[in-house]
């Protein structure tokens, strides 16, 4: 049975977790293949598994003390994904479709419905 190559076989490593020590165990590469005409350079580069020579040789975990304090200390009430850039009320055009230009002169206010008694 063929043994997979480890990073420590080629380089001197310092406390690397197993998931970084053995890049051949990584899964999930090259599952979806778009049409070659629409493939970007990022998709081309990202579909290959990492090689031994591109993996880090030192693992330096970061301290999570600051985020642990924030997580315990308070609850975040604002959980929405806000993409609004203005505070304008919803508006529509008379033709039912929005014009290409964003200027306010191209928009029409929604008509007010009055009840006749």
TrEMBL record:
Main location: other
GO cellular component labels: axonemal microtubule
A Gene Ontology BP annotation from the UniProt entry: axoneme assembly
InterPro entries: PIRC1/2 (IPR026507)
Keywords: Cell projection, Cytoplasm, Cytoskeleton
Localization terms from the record: Cell projection, Cilium; Cytoplasm, Cytoskeleton
Short name of any one Pfam family annotated for the protein: PIRC1_2
Assigned protein family: Belongs to the PIERCE1 family.
Official protein name in the record: Uncharacterized protein
Organism, scientific name: Rotaria sordida
């Amino acid at each position: 049975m063929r043994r997979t190559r480890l990073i420590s076989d080629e380089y001197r490593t310092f406390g690397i977790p197993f998931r970084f020590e053995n890049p051949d165990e990584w899964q999930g590469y090259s599952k979806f293949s778009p049409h070659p005409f629409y493939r970007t350079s990022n998709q081309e580069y990202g579909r290959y598994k990492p090689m031994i020579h591109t993996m880090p040789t030192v693992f330096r975990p970061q301290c999570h003390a600051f985020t642990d304090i924030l997580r315990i200390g308070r609850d975040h009430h604002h959980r929405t994904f806000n993409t609004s850039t203005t505070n304008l009320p919803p508006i529509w055009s008379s033709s039912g479709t929005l014009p290409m230009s964003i200027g306010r002169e191209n928009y029409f206010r929604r008509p007010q419905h009055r009840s006749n008694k």
